[in-house]
Design goal:
By secondary structure, the chain is of the alpha+beta class. It has helices spanning 18-27, 62-68, 99-109, 131-137, 185-194, 204-217, 222-232; strands at residues 3-9, 36-42, 53-58, 83-87, 90-95, 114-119, 122-128, 147-153, 175-182, 235-242, 246-251, 260-263, 267-271, 287-289, 297-300. The chain is built from seven helices and 15 strands. The longest helix has 14 residues, at 204-217.
Length: 301
């Protein structure tokens, strides 16, 4: 039993409110996942400025701050145009280069560190502990942008560690959060490893994320990639998957795990429980529905 929330903003006037709205939604699913919490924010130019890439890192050594730039904790400092943010277990490095180049630079500076997110739109934060406390650590309430998602975890398939937390971001500007379990994840993990994939955790959800990332890298869109996942994966699941221009939801064949979607002209929201949507401005006039089994619901920026 985990909690999922996501918010995709259609109206730019709402962008400054993204974090405050998402933090309130996350708080309403805290009991569904008391072990840990993670969030992803798209388009916050204070965390990832225009023309920059951002890389989110776990196990960052003290030397990372010196090797890449100066160290800061929600106080913006710029050294050679590189920004480094510390937020609990997560360190975010942003620099004016392509995401793949920055990933390579971070890994060269700190081979022992674990990259858990990268992109030109995306910042990812992961940690263990109470979701409400972690939202404060991430300064989520002050986040801005056009899209965000959050996850509260009750661990079932792997250890309670920051690496095992959601979201799983294994491709540029891509994220996946999952409520449920995949029955055949070990088989698909072996297939992906044979194709060259390298895994960072034992979490079954990471298998789903790497499967989707491989399909997107092959040129598929979110809709087709998730339909492929439904064909290959057995188990019970609700998934929210985001990319640099998309937001998509899908459930398993019997819709075992809960999900609610609400839409207005200003936003699209998804959550594991209606109470996470209940306080969104405009909810009284929203179209509210439960997604059907194995039907992919997708929106583009």
């Amino acid at each position: 039993m985990c909690g999922i929330v996501g918010l995709h903003l259609r109206d730019p006037e709402w962008y400054p409110r993204l974090g405050r709205l998402l933090a309130a939604m996350l708080g309403q699913v805290a009991e569904r996942g008391p072990d840990s919490a993670g969030v992803a924010v798209y388009g916050d130019r204070r965390r990832c400025p225009e023309g920059y890439a951002a890389v989110s890192v776990l196990n960052a050594p003290p030397g990372l701050a010196d090797a890449v730039s100066g160290k800061w904790s929600y106080r913006t400092t710029c050294h050679s145009r590189v920004l480094v943010t510390e937020a609990g277990a997560t360190t975010v490095v942003a620099a004016p280069m392509e995401p793949a180049e920055l990933v390579d630079a971070v890994r060269a500076a700190a081979p022992e560190a674990l990259v858990v997110g990268s992109g030109s739109e995306l910042t990812v934060y992961k940690g263990i502990g109470a979701p409400g406390r972690l939202a404060g650590v991430y300064d989520l309430v002050n986040a801005q942008g056009w899209q965000g998602l959050g996850h509260t975890r009750m661990a079932t398939e792997s250890a309670i560690t920051p690496a095992g937390c959601h979201p799983f971001s294994v491709g540029p500007d891509q994220c996946l959060v999952h409520n449920g379990s995949f029955a055949n994840h070990a088989t698909i993990r072996r297939e992906l490893i044979a194709e060259g994939a390298v895994f960072d955790s034992e979490n079954d959800s990471e298998v789903g994320a790497r499967f989707v990332a491989s399909r997107l890298a092959a040129g598929e869109d979110l809709d087709k990639a998730l339909r492929g996942l439904c064909e290959r994966f057995d188990g019970f699941y609700t998934l929210l998957v985001t990319s640099g221009d998309g937001f998509a939801v899908v459930r398993d064949a019997i819709a075992c795990k809960p999900a609610i979607i609400a839409e207005t002209d200003a936003w699209v929201a998804m959550a594991s429980e209606f109470r996470a949507l209940a306080e969104l401005p405009g909810i009284d006039g929203a179209r509210i529905y439960e997604p059907e089994p194995e039907k992919v619901y997708a929106w583009r920026r």
